[in-house]
Amino acid sequence: MAVQTPPLLADAPTTARSGRLTGGARSRPLRIGFVMEQVIGHVTWYQNLRRAVTSLNEVEARWVETRLFEEGGLLERIPGLPPLVRSGGRALLDVRRGLRGSQYDALLFNTQKAAMLCQWDMLRTPTMLMTDVTPIQYDRMADLYDHTPDRSAPLRLLKHRVNVMNFHLARALIPSSTWARDSMIRDYGVPPERIHVIPIGTDTERWRPAESRPTNERVRMLFVGGHFERKGGRILLDVFRSLGLQDRAEVHVVTREAVEPTPGVTIHTNVQNNSPELLGLYQSADLFVLPTLADCFGNASIEAMAVGLPVITTAIGGIPDIVEHGVTGYLLSAGDAHGLADAVRHLVMDADARRAFSMAARRRALARFDARTNAAKIVDLARALVDERQAGAMAG
Q1: Which fold, 219-368?
Q2: Is 98 helix (H, G, I), strand (E, B) or coil?
Q3: What is the predicted pLDDT for the residue at 82?
Q4: What's the pTM value of the predicted model, to 2 decimals?
């Protein structure tokens, strides 16, 4: 599934009309610098957050994109440079260029990787640090993510200490889920009162059930996962074939990997994130199935619930915060083919259950995963941090 940067100017400020701070005789909008990692799934989170913040008209925002890598860059040409230094240094250079010439009331980094070497910025400016997974959690899923943890013990220790320092330098931590929050407390010693679980979510005004569509002749199941194997695509197709439901159901697969078409299965490639084509596939489906083997926090399941689809997925990472088992769908153990077969069979055969789950899924998406509502929470948090610093300066 192709990744596309949204059609917005990466470094153009978005000016506010409200949310003003008092400074002397004049008032001005709250100024926030947003540093956004642009690697795979983080692109979608960035798009959703940016559009939501812009729609609020409450801040003067500058958006800085970093891909943690620059083809042919000086840092990238230095032999033997540890990945921590290379990617962190690249992000630091991007931050310096993107925020040059302006001062900000607050900063937000959408991943800890983007903030790796930005300690000076975090000391000078109240900083919010977002993440959907802590480094320790990510290392535990290394095999399924094709990720190689640092083999050098000194380098592992250095990386951990830098992350501990940054988690404590940040004035507020914003994990996407209680799963990531618990790791911050347990593995990094972060005080619970400085942690605020706020998932970015999605644009629920755009991601909504279609106003009208014809009833599918066969129940249409949708799978959306760029990494077909890790997201459980192979398990889903094996279960679909074993159930013999080709006369009652069909599967539509959205992925960027090559998958052999089989009877009853349609493969969609080169579908872009947040695109009208992807939205159309969700809105024409009856059921969303993602038996993922490893995940941090699944945006695809949120999109599915926003358009009113029952969701069958696995209870790993932060996903239990998204799907309410038995209410908006089913949560299974990773790799549980028998459980997946039972859940698929039930929702394919029972239209009343699908309708009940559909309505509950939409309600939950509106209540917990509306990007504009959650962006407002983040802006309110930034304002509270700024007020806290100003109060401390006056008291000092």
Answers
A1: Rossmann fold (3.40.50)
A2: helix
A3: 84
A4: 0.90
